[in-house]
Amino acid sequence: MDSTIVLLALATFASTLIGGTIAIRLRKVLHYFFAFSAGALVAVAFLDLLPESISTAQNLNFPIRYVLMVAVLSFFVYNMIERAFATHHIDKEEKDKEHSHIMGPIGAGGLVIHSFLDGVAIGSAFSLSPVAGVIVAFAVISHDFTDGINTIVVMLKNSGTTRSAKLFLVMDAVAPLLGVAIISQFTISPIVLSVILAIFVGEFIYLGASNILPETRRHTPWKMMLLMAVGIATVAILTSFI
After folding, report:
1. Rounded distance, CA 230 to CA 167, Å?
2. Phi then psi dihedrals of residue 100, to 5 deg
């Protein structure tokens, strides 16, 4: 494997860890990260994943309507999962505490798979040309910083322990390395890739808009809106380089 690819993949590893570590160290102001992540996750869905899924489908003459239906179904299923598995506190003294449910691992797991596909994207781009590979790699390195933050936020918001949040952070950081390694040996079907990306669209919209955003409503509105805007703008800028 080309040493340049290895170095860039290691850079994605470091970028993810740095973002997540900052979110852990600044837990006292975690609500600011909630607002940032809500904006970033929805922006990633609309500005990164959905266009890529549609583009892949178009190249294969796969109906775009099916891609959108998968995204909508994904949103519905994740909402149903939370309602089915959420465990809410009934005791009055516990009513203000975070309820614990399965959405933390599911959401963070989705981010890990997304990072794996980022590694696949880097390896695929390098197979076309070194220049394309470097461009894609730098874009991935940049937004992996926000992926690290999002992984921690999704886990801690959903009553995950710091230890479990760190575990998913490491998995998220390692995922691009595995993606680069595996794509050099195997090829993922474009149709399958398009469907997977569409599933992530529904998941990330759900996580950002339905799971994380409500947590920002108990804090200063203008500050939360500002941080959401920063999250959206950050993803918009980073995806413009791809």
Report:
1. 27
2. -100, 135
- What pTM value is reported for the model? 0.74
pLDDT digits (tens, 9 = 90+) for 186-211: 777 888 888 888 988 998 898 888 87
What is the rounded CA–CA span in Å between residue 104 and residue 183? 28
Structure tokens at 49: 């994943």
Question: Per residue, what are the HEC states of 66-96?
Answer: HHHHHHHHHHHHHHHHHHHHCECCCCHHHCC
Q: Phi/psi class of residue 61: alpha, beta or left (left: φ > 0; alpha: ψ in -120 to 50)? A: left
Strand partners, 87: 100
Signed CA dihedral, 106, 156, 166, 8: sign only? positive
Among all chains, which residue has been given the structure tokens 């380089």? 241
Q: What is the pLDDT of residues 109-130, one digit of tens each?
A: 998 998 898 888 888 777 766 7
